[in-house]
Amino acid sequence: MNANQIPHIVIIGAGFAGLEVARGLAKSRVRITLIDKNNHHLFQPLLYQVAIAGLLPSQIAQPVRTIFRKQKNLTFQMGEVSAINFDEKYVKLNGSVIAYDYLVLAVGGRTNFFGFDTIEKSGFQLKDLDTAVKTRNHLLSMFEQASHEADTEKRKAMLTFVIVGGGPTGVETAGALAELITHVMKKDYPRLNLNDARVVLLEAGANLISSYPDELRQATVKLLKKKNVDIRLNSKLDSYNGVQVKLADGTQIETQTVIWTAGVKATEIVDELSIDKASGGRIRIEPTLQLPQHPETFVIGDAAFLLDEKGQPLPMISTVAIQQGVFTAKSIINLMTGKPLGHFHYKDPGLLATIGRNAAVARIFGISFSGFIAWVIWVFLHIYRIIGFRNRIIVLFNWAWDYVFYDNQVRLITKE
Amino acid sequence: MNANQIPHIVIIGAGFAGLEVARGLAKSRVRITLIDKNNHHLFQPLLYQVAIAGLLPSQIAQPVRTIFRKQKNLTFQMGEVSAINFDEKYVKLNGSVIAYDYLVLAVGGRTNFFGFDTIEKSGFQLKDLDTAVKTRNHLLSMFEQASHEADTEKRKAMLTFVIVGGGPTGVETAGALAELITHVMKKDYPRLNLNDARVVLLEAGANLISSYPDELRQATVKLLKKKNVDIRLNSKLDSYNGVQVKLADGTQIETQTVIWTAGVKATEIVDELSIDKASGGRIRIEPTLQLPQHPETFVIGDAAFLLDEKGQPLPMISTVAIQQGVFTAKSIINLMTGKPLGHFHYKDPGLLATIGRNAAVARIFGISFSGFIAWVIWVFLHIYRIIGFRNRIIVLFNWAWDYVFYDNQVRLITKE
Known about the structure:
The structure is a homodimer. Chain A is an alpha/beta fold. The first copy, chain A, contains twelve helices and 26 strands. The first copy, chain A, has a six-stranded mixed sheet, with helices on one face. In chain A, strands 11-18-12-13-14 form a five-stranded parallel sheet. A three-stranded antiparallel sheet of chain A has the order 6-7-8, with no helix packed on it. In chain A, helix 8 (214-226) links the parallel strand 13 and strand 14 (229-232).
């Protein structure tokens, strides 16, 4: 058997979904080419921690080459795929053509601003390391500027932080930012009146974390209020000009900081594909996760659109991506050996959101937790899931330190 | 006694020199305003480690506000001083006028390209966190690009890294980069022939680390050669166009990476002052470290020019800056209490340069060391000097890990 007869599997995207496919094929007689536009895998659920100066970029990211050092059937290529030809089975990357036998599209999503161009321009988002670091630098700069601003109104505007979107990311960011102000910035800026500082959480709907059970939603509101987060439900954004937010009901909020966490849509490469798409530009797939008419192509993670048993679209979250990745690796093995494919069923492992330093809400095995116990569960689950043993130790050490000393480790402003 | 009668001391620069002045006045009845354009103090001697992906920015930098949290007589202000009026005793910062009773100019230096505009444009430097991270991203990108470059000559050019300047920074960078290639990149890029990779160290003079004793210079050459660093002595740069270096003797080196470590000069604010300056734009000062004609103004660190007992200018290194800072704090106390000022004398604490993972050269108490023992001394001295207990533990942990596993912790490419 020569090298040409070994099936070539191309995986686009080194997020949770793509990583699991590659791992699941580690012992198979295949050639894998894993492609990503970054050289690192990102532990996206903790990205907001980088934005609020709680964790370092390197603690939630790891080079893909390091992850797969020992997997000899895999080659990593960094770059952006410029075209995909499903009929002739090749992708274009860095000027080369790469032919495949099986293709896994796990390209993830990007921030959906729903047409709010001014927010895309003047606001902040949490999509990758660069946008998170940019957010951190801006947040810290606001405190510096406020520290030498004599005008009270201007100072208050500098210390007003608006977070748009009451989903898990918005809730976690609001809680963590409120704690940064109360516990850390108060010490760093002893002469600044931080009672002027405000964290405003805007949610267009009637509830925060609307997909969670009611008791957890209530616990979340209670925990955020305790941390002085100003929660505005049924508050639709109307406009933002870089210094003032206007809501649909006419309310105005003076602020230089709007962090948008309110939506995800498909990435650029998916936009260009002439295939059937659902809301947010996500690709409609078969229950086997295959692309219709192209059984050798799988689409998984945030880029894929599939309904669950209740007719609801599967959420764009890491646990779905991971399970689909594991499932797809098995499906490819089945295809290669002529076995039939099963249907993908998502098993909900529970819900979890953290609200600052020592509080969280969780639902695991049908039981709801809130407060400190939920937070301890959250810490251990997240540390366990962070890739890399060294990172796990350092993150645990940092969190233990923060917990004991009420400190946040990195408040470096790295770009002006 | 009211607040106006408490002397106001303005310190510009939170480098080694400025920090020591502020610390030395912690128990004095004074008001201190410490100003820096960054919000952090930088442990500059380890900046090259950030460039070669050995340490994280946050491990060698710490927010100034955190350092001085407990020093109640100090206020920190982030910003760039736009003007200094020595006669009327005020500085301009962020649009405000700040009057002082005593001024300490500790503004440090910046890279001196000696008129090589093309290097300033296309080359890399190690001056602050941003330039070091930019260098790291570029170095790592070169390996990525080389990994999918089919043309052998182009690939070799991508893997050729030229370091200009055979001083301690150039030597340390060359040694560490050579080790990154041999021990870490070989594992990350198993399909890339890293025998094509080259580290070239250019020195215009006849010796590396020319200010060190001869036996250490020889040991350095030996250690670098063992790591396959291509040392070119008496090699003057003629030009660089972004893809090719030309030397004065006509030699051409194809490379996309030139790291310039060959010079330091005064910062922008010093350029604009109409006071007496020496080579590199450094300010000529009295043996008391005072500015001539302005006894209430002290100039210290890289910005100051002073001859030692042998008539040699004091070097622009951290140990000089630290000793001058300590001395200046005492001098200000003497001035306030009407005591006479002494002359500054630099006490050479020894020399130390590291050459990669387990080798260094050192001269302490008149004894020369090289190899592993010198490296152990270097590790302990540097860790001890890094500010912040938490950072010390993490840096030690990372180095121990790297030493055991031959790994470098962060190889994230964060900007394209």
